[in-house]
UniProtKB/TrEMBL annotation:
Cell location: Membrane
Native source organism of the sequence: Podospora comata
Membrane association type: Multi-pass membrane protein
Record protein name field: Rhodopsin domain-containing protein
Pfam families from the UniProt entry: Fung_rhodopsin (PF20684)
Domain Rhodopsin: 46-294
Organism placement in taxonomy: Eukaryota, Fungi, Dikarya, Ascomycota, Pezizomycotina
Region called Disordered, residue ranges: 320-348
Bilayer-crossing regions: 28-49, 70-93, 113-140, 152-174, 194-217, 238-258, 270-290
Chief location category: membrane
Length: 360
C-alpha cells in the first residue's frame, strides 16, 4: 500500500457548466453572431442594390464579397447551431485533461459534435477572410484600372493574400494527424496535433500586416487623381474606414492568445473573429454605397427630417444661452454691450435649403 505522500493526486473537480463563466459567454457569442451576421448580409444587399440603382456592372469584386458573406453565413449558422445543441463547447476549454478523459455518454457525444464543427469553422475562417481581402483588392483595380504600377502592387499583395488563405486552410485541415484526432479528447493532444495557439497567433499577425498593406495601397493613387481636394479627402476617409478591420484583427490576436496553452481562448477567439470578418465585409461595402447615400441625402424626406432636427437643436441651444444671459446680467434678452440686438444665424445647407445663412 503506497503512502499518501507518494499517491497520485486526484484531478481537480469539474465546475458544472451552469456554474461556469462559459454559460454567459455562450449567450454573448450567440447574440454577437446574430447581430454581426445580420449587419453583414444587409450591407451586401445594399451594395448590390447600389450597383443596380446606379446602373453599374456587378463585377468580380462584388461576387467575391458575396461569396465571403455566404461563407460567413455558414460559419454563423454553425455557431448558432452548435452553441444551441452543444453549449458545453466553451466550457470544455477550461476543463483539465483528466476531466476531459472522464467525460462519457451524452456529454461526450455533444462535445465531439462541437469539436467537429470547430474543425470546419477553422478551415472556413481563412477562406472567408481571404475572399474578403481579394474582393477589396479587385475593387481597387476597378477604380484605379489605368494605373499600371498600382495594378502590379495589387497582384503582389493579392498573391500574398491567396498564399496566406491557402496555407491557413491546409494547415487547419491537417491540424492533427490522423485528422480524426482533431475532434477526439483530449483537445489538441500533443502526440498528434501541433500547437494551434502559436499557429493562430502567427497567422493572425500576418493577417494584420496584410490588412495594413491593403489599407495603404490606394493612398498614392488617390493623390494622382484629377479631382478636387475635398473629393480626395472624402474618398480617402472612406478607404480609411478599413482601419476598423485592422483594429479588430489586432484585438483578435492579442485576446485570443493564451501563454503556455496549446489552444487559443475559445470564447474571445470566436467572438472577435466573428466581429473581424463582419467588419471586413461592411468596410469593403461602404465605398460602393456612396451613390446611394448621396441620393438619400438629396431626398426631400431626409432634408425635412434633418431640417427639423437641426432647427430644434439650434433653438433649444439658443434659448438656454439666453436664459443663462438673463440670470448672469439681469438684463433683457438679446442686448449686447451697446444695447443692440444680434440676430442668430445657422447654415441653411444643414437644413437642405438654398443660400448660406438664415436668421432665426
Amino acid at each position: 500500500m503506497s503512502s499518501p505522500s507518494s499517491s497520485t493526486p486526484d484531478p481537480p473537480p469539474l465546475i458544472p457548466f451552469e456554474e461556469s463563466d462559459s454559460a454567459g459567454n455562450t449567450t454573448a457569442v450567440l447574440v454577437t453572431a446574430v447581430v454581426a451576421l445580420a449587419l453583414a448580409i444587409l450591407s451586401v444587399i445594399a451594395r448590390i442594390y447600389t450597383r443596380l440603382y446606379s446602373r453599374q456592372e456587378v463585377g468580380l469584386d462584388d461576387y467575391m464579397i458575396v461569396g465571403s458573406t455566404i461563407g460567413l453565413s455558414v460559419c454563423g449558422g454553425l455557431l448558432l447551431w452548435f452553441y444551441a445543441v452543444a453549449a458545453y463547447g466553451l466550457w470544455l476549454a477550461d476543463v483539465p485533461v483528466e476531466g476531459q478523459l472522464g467525460l462519457s455518454g451524452h456529454d461526450l457525444e455533444r462535445i465531439t459534435l462541437y469539436l467537429k464543427m470547430v474543425y470546419v469553422v477553422a478551415m472556413l475562417y481563412f477562406v472567408v477572410s481571404g475572399t474578403a481581402m481579394l474582393g477589396i483588392l479587385l475593387m481597387y483595380r476597378r477604380i484605379f484600372q489605368s494605373d499600371k504600377a498600382f495594378n502590379i502592387q495589387l497582384i503582389v499583395v493579392g498573391a500574398l493574400v491567396f498564399g496566406w488563405g491557402l496555407a491557413g486552410t491546409i494547415a487547419s485541415v491537417f491540424n492533427c494527424v490522423p485528422v480524426e484526432k482533431a475532434w477526439e479528447l483530449p483537445i489538441n493532444d500533443e502526440r498528434y496535433c501541433y500547437n494551434y495557439n502559436i499557429f493562430w497567433l502567427a497567422m493572425g499577425i500576418f493577417e494584420v500586416i496584410l490588412n495594413i498593406m491593403i489599407l495603404g495601397l490606394p493612398m498614392a493613387s488617390l493623390r494622382k487623381l484629377n479631382i478636387p481636394l475635398a473629393n480626395k479627402l472624402s474618398a480617402g476617409g472612406i478607404f480609411f474606414l478599413g482601419g476598423f478591420v485592422v483594429v479588430t484583427g489586432i484585438v483578435k490576436v492579442v485576446l485570443g492568445y493564451v501563454p503556455t496553452a496549446r489552444n487559443p481562448n475559445q470564447f474571445k477567439t470566436v467572438l472577435w473573429a466573428t466581429l473581424h470578418l463582419t467588419t471586413a465585409i461592411i468596410c469593403a461595402t461602404l465605398p460602393i454605397m456612396n451613390p446611394m447615400l448621396r441620393q438619400i441625402r438629396k431626398s426631400r424626406t431626409f432634408q425635412l427630417v434633418a431640417g427639423n432636427v437641426f432647427s430644434k437643436t439650434w433653438r433649444s441651444t439658443t434659448n438656454n444661452e439666453n436664459s443663462i444671459s438673463r440670470v448672469s446680467d439681469g438684463k433683457a434678452t438679446g442686448n449686447g454691450a451697446n444695447g443692440s440686438d444680434q440676430p442668430k444665424t445657422i447654415p441653411l445647407d444643414l437644413l437642405g435649403g438654398k443660400g448660406r445663412y438664415r436668421d432665426v
